[in-house]
Amino acid sequence: MFGMLIPNCCIWCHNKSPEATFDVSHVLPECVGNENQQTLPSGIVCKQCNNYFGTKVEPALLEDPLFHIIAVALRLKDPQDMNEFRDLIFDTKHPPAGNVERNLHCDIKISPNNMKLNVRYCIEGSISKTYQKRELALLSRAVHKIAFESLAYAMANNRIQDNIDTYDPRFESVRKWSRYGEPTNLVRPVVRLLTTDVKSEWEYRIWKFGGAVGAELNLFGDWYAVSLTSSPDKAHSDLNQWIDSTKSNYPIWCIGEELSLLK
Fold first, then answer.
1. Residues linked to residue 22 through DSSP beta bridges, in sequence order
2. Cβ proximity of 40 and 34 under 8 Å
């Protein structure tokens, strides 16, 4: 736990200053609009781990087709240059699976020396992705990274009343999974659902089930739930408690050994 005390010890690799160097870390990648809303102060995530996640793990979420189309629809902007993070539904990394239809409807109203156009433009097509196990693993690791750093953010800013020590050994499983991809023979499960409430906001919620700790993430209407303390062999069964408690009418699926619909 931190409160206002910065430990200068990385929550991922546990390396300490002066051996490790630190900088501000973005819980959600900065390129999708997170400039200052959720950042961890210097002294919580070391530069080496921060760079690793940014180049090796988080791209799996940013490139995921569902996250991609939400980013385009919401016109999410990178605060560094204020350019749109993504501006095309169909691009080289997300090519259409088949034909793309473009429909333009225009109502024209004419008055003296004036033309008013009421325009409705629609693009329709399909994006298809067949996930390999490695891709599912990286996607799971990216979500767990954001979830665990959301817990660290909550503790650093006194956002929750519970006294949770993020260096506690019970977080070792999620730390090894997100940072190192261990164990290599399993994909730590993530529950995912998409609502119709898609908007330019993200939030987190820390929840408990028994003595375990989990996190809910709402990334622009793309919802995730993970367990942060379950052992690798029990993470799936523990997440079932979250599934049983949710009253959502939307489809729920699991990112795990395979991508599967749960309900």
1. 46
2. no
- In 80-229 the beta strands, taken as DSSP E runs, fall at 83-84, 101-111, 114-124, 190-194, 202-209, 212-219, 222-227
Q: Is the pTM of this model over 0.90?
A: yes
Token pair belonging to 41: 């102060």
- Residue 219, C-beta contacts closer than 8 angstroms, at least 6 positions apart: 28, 67, 146, 202
Checking if the pLDDT of 197 tops 90, the result is no
CB count within 10 Å of CB 116 equals: 9
CA distance to 20, 25, 32, 153, 242, per residue, from 43 (Å): 9, 9, 23, 12, 32
Tell the burial category of 167 from Cβ atoms under 10 Å away from its Cβ (0-12, 13-18, 19+): middle
247 pLDDT more than 80? no
Distance CA 56, CA 26 (A): 15
Which has the closest alpha carbon to 219: 5, 34, 13? Answer: 34
The average pLDDT across 150-166 equals 86
pLDDT attached to residue 237: 87
Nearest to 89 by CA among 125, 128, 47: 125
What is the model's pLDDT at position 1? 47
- Average pLDDT of 197-209? 89
Cα(139)–Cα(201) distance, rounded to whole angstroms? Answer: 20
